[in-house]
Amino acid sequence: MNRLFGALPARARAALLVVFVLLLAAPWIAGPYLLSVLVLALYYAYVGQAWNVMMGFAGQLSLGHALYVGLGAYVSAALYVHGGIGPWLGAPIAAAVAALAGAAIGFLAFRFGIGGVYFALLTIAFAEFTRIGFEHIDWLGGAGGLFLPVVERGRLDIVDLRGGPRLFYYLLLALAVGSLLLCRTLRTSRIGFYWLAIREDPDAARALGIDLFKYRVLAAAISAAMASVAGVVAAFYYNSLTPADSFGAAKSIEIILGPLVGGLGTLIGPILGAFVLTGLSEGLRALLDATGHQMPGATQLFYGIVLLLVIKYLPNGIWPGLARRLGLVERER
Amino acid sequence: MTWDVYANVIIGGILTGLVYGLMALGLSVIFGVVRVVNFAHGEMMMVAMYLAVLGCGTWGIDPLWLMVPLAALLFVFGYALQSLVVHPFMTRPDHAQFMLLVAVGMILTNGALIVFGPDARGVQVDYALDSLEWGPLLIDKVRLYAALAALAVAAALFAFFRLSATGKAIRACADNYRGALVVGLDVRRLFALTFGCGTACVGAAGAMLVLLGDVTPSLGPAYTLLAFVIVIVGGLGSMAGALVAGVLIGVSEALAGLILVPSMKSMVSFGLLILVLMFRPQGLLGRSS
Fold first, then answer.
1. Whether the predicted pLDDT of B145 surpasses 60
2. How many helices (H) and strands (E) does chain B have?
3. A20 lies in a domain?
4. Rg (chain B; Cα; Å)
5. Of A67, A168, A315, B207, which sits most exposed with the smallest number of CB within 10 A?
6. If DSSP codes are grouped into helix, strand and coil, which group holds residue B237?
7. Which pLDDT value is given to residue A103?
8. Is residue A243 part of a domain?
9. Strand B131-134 and strand B137-140: pairing?
10. How many whole angstroms separate alpha carbon B223 and alpha carbon B253?
11. A2 located within any domain
């Protein structure tokens, strides 16, 4: 713990503690609607953190991360529906499958020297390829989707992850905190510094003897495995999944909005971005509902405008500037 | 008996592929010169398709005639977008440029969803079901006209880049950015012109595509991906490659629709894209860097 948080100023540690306690208490204060919004925000915080490992840390732009989230969802749901294997065993299997997929795509791309825009397009192509493929696998429900058996409301079954929003809230909170700690560990360890070197200047990193290929593939595998766990939780929370929703390009974009808005490559950025975006879009929806407007594309339109403004005026995201203003920046080491 | 079925499908694929090729040509021209990947390409075409449907429905003008004003309108849009929005991003990292255009694409798609609604819209022309018979071959008139128009626009663009002084200046910017600055070319204006030419292709292609199918807001991202596939297969930045790969993708999708299930046809395109990226990342007609 000391290694993880020793470098933070006292007020940053205090702020973290306050936020954490607030988040712990939230389900007992918030109503059902607010709780569902918080679940959504934590979900995007976690999955954004996973994407951030690949892009923010290692500098590899993946625009197809829905692939790994979707794989996690489908693997765990299929194991549960067809094999009776519960999510606690299904999640590691799903993570292994996703890590393999991430490593395989990374292997192919980095072995053949595919970078920049070509890599981004390759990730989209794999996600789309998988989406259309899954629409034709009847065993997984085809285009109509795969459904998990729904049990009566109010029953709590932690073994099979059957329960109300509170269960999923705490699960996602644990994942978000866990991923924050994991990323903090990665960031301050050898591999994190290697990634930083690769991101900032691949040629210089290579000259220093860093194995670019190995560490890029590692970033892809770790990021994919983390993302897949989000898919597992989403599958058991929503009880239904379709290829279009799971692997679609729109999903991939939603995943990366949080880190981009919050601050690419920072640890708090993905969390802050997810909460800001989810909060704003839910507020917008509530406003539209209250004024009696039904606009199907309004949220996405709003995301587009926010993304445009953030990219233009806050290229580093919200967090770096905010952290400096609040005096929460780490001491120089 | 069966060969003429295949021949008809292949001819249809070639004709559709030429229209796809024109759309992809726009993307290729923009990337080849400005080095920006237009992630809002299909979304712009979707908007052009809606405008064509509106123009045809309101004034009863044939979409093929609407091609000219739509190309002009999208030229202005592309020119303004490049010089006002994209140009300040020229020195920013790649991913910032991508995300900027992704944002523009999201705004266009969902703006269209709010304005036009999610339902498919199409146009009716009186020659919609006519076809030319040539022995056992049946050629749809609509497809033939659209393909000929696509070829004409592509030829005009080739001529512009090869023959006109402005076109040569644009190619100079693409070949040597710093050199172009040194000899005093107005790079900002030339980039905006190029972006405008690229989006004009999309405007023209959109007017043709409403003849071949209905338009919905969700077509935007799908066509962006299709344009990427074509351009990567043909070679990013290669004008001839875009047309050739457009035909290749048109034919392979048409054949996949015949041999496999129609809904699996774009899987063939993405498979082709993955193969090309693996084994010939510069594309079929691209120059290796």
1. yes
2. 11, 2
3. no
4. 19
5. A315
6. coil
7. 94
8. yes
9. antiparallel
10. 14
11. no
Q: What's the pLDDT tens digit per position in A36-45?
A: 999 999 999 9
**Residues of chain A positioned with their CB less than 8 A from the CB of B99:** 260, 307, 311
Q: Residue A60: exposed, middle, or buried by beta-carbon count in 10 A (0-12, 13-18, 19+)?
A: buried
Burial label, B276 (beta-carbon count in 10 A; 0-12, 13-18, 19+): buried
Task: Taking residues B58-83, report their average pLDDT.
Answer: 88
The answer to ipTM > 0.90 is no
Q: Do B278 and A108 touch (CB under 8 A)?
A: yes
- The bridge status of strand A146-147 relative to strand A240-241 is antiparallel
Question: Which of the 8 DSSP states describes residue B90?
Answer: T
Task: Return the residue in B30, B44, B107 with the most chain A beta carbons within 10 A, the one to mutate for interface testing.
Answer: B107
User: Total structural domains in chain A?
Assistant: 1
Partners of residue B112 in chain A, C-beta under 8 Å = 297
DSSP state of A240: E
AA letter at B281: P
A324 vs B244: CA distance, rounded Å: 53
Say how far apart CA A170 and CA B11 lie, in whole Å: 58
Contact partners, residue A320, CB within 8 Å, separation at least 6: A263, A266, A269
pTM reported for the whole predicted model = 0.87
Task: Report the C-alpha gap between B191 and B176 in whole angstroms.
Answer: 13
Chain A partners within 8 Å of B261 (Cβ): 136
Helix axes of B141-163 and B63-80: crossing angle, nearest 10 degrees: 40
Both tokens assigned to A242: 């379709």
Q: What is the DSSP secondary structure assignment for residue B247, as one 8-state letter?
A: H
Domain that holds residue A105: 9-15+32-326
Q: What pLDDT does A183 receive? A: 92
Q: Which residue on chain A is closest to B98 by alpha carbon?
A: A117
* Residue A222 forms part of a structural domain: yes
State the DSSP code for A241.
Answer: E
Q: Give residue-wise pLDDT tens across range A282-303.
A: 888 888 888 877 777 788 888 8
Of the residues A54, A111, A123, A129, the best mutation for testing chain B's interface (the one with the most B CB atoms within 10 Å of its CB) is A129
Task: Give the pair of three-digit tokens for residue B129.
Answer: 């079901």
SS3 label, residue A162: strand
Over residues A239-262, the pLDDT tens digits come to: 889 988 889 888 898 899 999 999
Closest to B215 in 3D by CA, of B59, B47, B72: B47
Q: DSSP states of B103-115 as a string?
A: HHHHHHHHHHHHH
Question: Residue A126 and residue B274: Cβ atoms within 8 Å?
Answer: yes
Whole-number CA gyration radius for chain A: 20
Q: Which two tokens stand for residue A152?
A: 């009566």
All residues at 6 or more sequence positions from A317 whose CB lies less than 8 Å from its CB, including other chains: A259, A260, A261, A262, A263, A264, A266, A269, A273, A310
HEC states along A131-157? HHHHCCCHHHCHHHCEECCCCCCCCCE
pLDDT band at B32 (very low <50, low <70, confident <90, very high): confident
Residues 6 or more apart in contact with residue B157 via CB below 8 angstroms: B25, B29, B197, B201, B239
DSSP code string of B116-185: H-SS-B----TTTT-EEEETTEEEEHHHHHHHHHHHHHHHHHHHHHHHSHHHHHHHHHHH-HHHHHHTT-
